[in-house]
Amino acid sequence: MGRVVIDVMPKPEILDPQGKAVVGALPRLGFDLFTSVRQGRRFELEVEGDVTPEVLAQARQAAEKLLSNPVIEDVVSVRDAAGAPEASA
Amino acid sequence: MGRVVIDVMPKPEILDPQGKAVVGALPRLGFDLFTSVRQGRRFELEVEGDVTPEVLAQARQAAEKLLSNPVIEDVVSVRDAAGAPEASA
């Protein structure tokens, strides 16, 4: 059984209110090293067999059509959880 | 400027309604290769200098205390975005 990991993050120019809330809360809890936080989403998709180039291509399409909102988010990574990144990434 | 990436996923035994919604929608859009989807969160934390072991240790603490809900989520990764994983991960 294979697994594909997809990472989706808010575009850099888009305000990220969840990240802002986190960066404001961190110093109040004693975490004083961080200057900026962005919060995005991570998906794990399982397939029956191995993670082939076809699987990665379909995962990339799904990421762009269903899993992300292209107006405000970027698909930053589509890769085999076992290690090999998408050839075209 | 360094960047730490933190991945948080729902625990395997916890129902993930967002993942269920995605896995139901995929075949309707023609994506027929995926048998299971889990949706979690990805954080990018920036620091002024390099990502030192101290930075990774504080990021790990922040991930467990603030960024995740330990009842329903696991912190699956805390790493330097530039490549090196947390020594203790």
Automatic annotation (TrEMBL), chains A, B:
> Which reaction equations make up its catalytic activity?
N(2)-formyl-N(1)-(5-phospho-beta-D-ribosyl)glycinamide + L-glutamine + ATP + H2O = 2-formamido-N(1)-(5-O-phospho-beta-D-ribosyl)acetamidine + L-glutamate + ADP + phosphate + H(+)
Q: Where are the transmembrane segments?
A: none
Q: Where is this chain's protein located in or outside the cell?
A: Cytoplasm
Q: What is its EC number?
A: 6.3.5.3
Biological process (GO) annotations? 'de novo' IMP biosynthetic process
PANTHER family (alphabetical): PHOSPHORIBOSYLFORMYLGLYCINAMIDINE SYNTHASE SUBUNIT PURS
Oligomer and partners? Part of the FGAM synthase complex composed of 1 PurL, 1 PurQ and 2 PurS subunits.
* The protein's name: Phosphoribosylformylglycinamidine synthase subunit PurS
What is the species of this protein? Kineococcus rhizosphaerae
Gene (UniProt): purS
